[in-house]
Amino acid sequence: MSAGKPWLKFYPRDWRGDQALRHVSLPARGLWIDMICIMYEATPYGHLTIGGQPVSEVALAKHAGTSVEEVQALLVELLAAEVCRRTRTGVLYSKRMLADHKRSVEGKKAKTLALAQAAENNHEKSPPSRVPTRPPYTQKPEARAKVEGPKAPSTLSDAKNDFIGPDEVRIAFLSAKGEEWVRSYIDRCGWQDLPCRALLAANSIALSEINQALRALARDKNPVTTGLTVIPKERAA
Question: What is the distance between the alpha carbons of residues 152 and 28, in angstroms, rounded to a whole number?
């Protein structure tokens, strides 16, 4: 079976209605369908060739499983009824297969041309792209804080807050967690310096959130929060 042509389009009504084919014997029709299968996979298409070489009567007899004498007699029937024909070089071929193949090739070309024309028409109808009259707006990401010590400058928000502890502590959390988080948890904390530096968490939820943030800052080896602890307000010294 040919990889490029895995199936054959066959019209039973055309086969039964072919008057030329009706005039030949049943064995001749059987040989003809075998020949059609060979010609379908042949190069050139529709010709009785294998590997580009004409199929001899001996080879055709082997293919059909009959004698050379019977093949010769059946070919006489097929040629006389003009079911098959010979080229000038003596190669047998099917006129119907060549005509069908020609229509198929022309149909594919016409379809390809129509699709290309349709694509070109759609392109012409589509409005031209509009060139922007002003440069696009690009939002700059908010700068991150750069904390190096108690007196280090910060590019973070300097908005007034309620945190009573050192500014560098608030800034460290601000750089790691953001303004909204700091307002929710750090700004509501108390502060103590002795007996240890500690944030006084407003409730158990704040205690858990701040401890998680402290662990993250410890992984980053932030010097401002090193040694800083967090305890509930009710346990403050």
Answer: 103
